[in-house]
Amino acid sequence: MSDPSIRKIVIVGGGTAGWMAAAPLAQQLARLAGPVCQIVLIESPDIGTIGVGEATLPTIRNYNRSLGLDGVEFIKRTQGSFKLGIEFRDWGHLGNRFFHGFGDFGPPIDNRSPYMHWLRLHRAGKVPSYEEWSTSTVMARSNRFTPPQGDRPSAANAYSFAFHFDAGLYAACLRDYAMQRGVQRIESTIVDVELRPEDGFVAALKLADGRRIDGDLFIDCSGFRGLLIEGAMHAGYEDWSALLPCNSALAVPSARVGPLTPYTTSTAKGSGWQWRIPLQHRTGNGHVYCDHFTSDGQAEQVLLQGLDSEPLGDPRQLRFTTGRRRSSWVKNVVALGLASGFLEPLESTSIQLIMDGVGLLIENFPGRDFQPCLAAEFNRRVANQYASIRDFIILHYKLSRRDDSDFWRYCAAMPVPDSLLHQIELFRSTGRMVVFDSIGFSEASFVSILLGMGVVPQTCHPFIDGIDETLLLQHFQRLHSAIKNTVAAMPDHAEYIDRNVRADPIAPIPGGNKNCLRQAA
Fold this sequence. Notes:
By secondary structure, this protein is of the alpha+beta class. The chain has 14 helices and 22 strands. The protein has helices spanning about 15-30, 60-65, 70-75, 115-125, 135-140, 165-180, 295-305, 350-365, 370-400, 405-415, 420-430, 445-450, 470-490, 495-500, and strands at about 10, 40-45, 55, 80-85, 85-90, 95-100, 160-165, 185, 190-195, 200-205, 210-215, 215-220, 235-240, 250-255, 265-270, 270-280, 285-290, 315-320, 325, 330, 335, 340.
């Protein structure tokens, strides 16, 4: 009987997606007994990658930890800073400001979420903003940071964090990791895709230099064009432009200025929004907009006027169509990153989707027979995650009360999925929240956006009134005091970085002689 295992994986495209796929696959496959599985990554010197400063979600720490990356060297090499969440400005209305922090709002009370009990006291006028019970939010407002401390639940660990980093430097870090574990890198341009005539599977890729690269499993990380998943497999694309109308972005770095904030800033503009991502060596900026409501020239002017320091170059243009492939796994081709879909960068989900896609591929890793049920399960999970994130992002636009431009009037009037309408109405009417995707954004995240955008529930759960109000108020007051005192004792974000993870000044792009790996004992 012939060996049914995958013997060769070909990854099309480098950048963040390609190397995020290569690193864990190399690690996992090296542990297997039996025949070696070869991994080849092809990246073209003629095709650029989308590599501006990146913001992430807290689960990036699990990915790094699973690879054994040294946390200190990782941050130094990527010029990273810490991210406690996102500050939203001018979204609900002009002058509106709220924070989506990472973490919860204290422990459950009587087996119900703390926000439900806060609602009861807030309706009675006895407690201020919900954000004051979010440790991450209070830290962000004070520009404080230190990692969570201790094992017992307390204000000192009732929060999480992610990173800001340079995506190009992160990809270089993972490239070194993968190549040290046997991944072969080929620098060339693919000129043709050879299909097997009997079943339409990809047999090989033909390169501009004449080489033919065969393989069993092909991972498409070729970006928006989807060289394999669309060009060869014709997977189709589900266009969500009517629900997420922004279709363009301009990005430009600017000089670093103080204070070094431990959060991303998203500021709503007349035809979209502007991001600000602080790194150690610079600040990443961008303007995401819909070109149906403004011109590229006007969008560039908005971006440059919104900078808080001098630009370090000319803005880079990016066009996109929000949506996803109808199938991200077709035959022996699996699409990851932008080749799989794009949901705009509002909640920093692009790297999360790559990471989760790689994890799903490992979980459903095929043999050379490519059982269709594995692809079906992969596609089901990917579709659910994309839909849940899509609805979460739509929430920001749909709930805005801004009517100062055609763009915001369109957002107010646009139809939205029934799944999202149900979530909004359930919360608005009863104070209850439902989350459809357990690996996506949590209840606390949805509540942060809903309350931040001004949706205050009309009623509370009837069983909430069963707890003595005086005791409940004392609980919230103790928690509030604990958070305030804990945060006051934390170091400033920039001070923490300077003491623990300060990066060397950027000169040329770092080469491969420096790595961010924990050395084996």
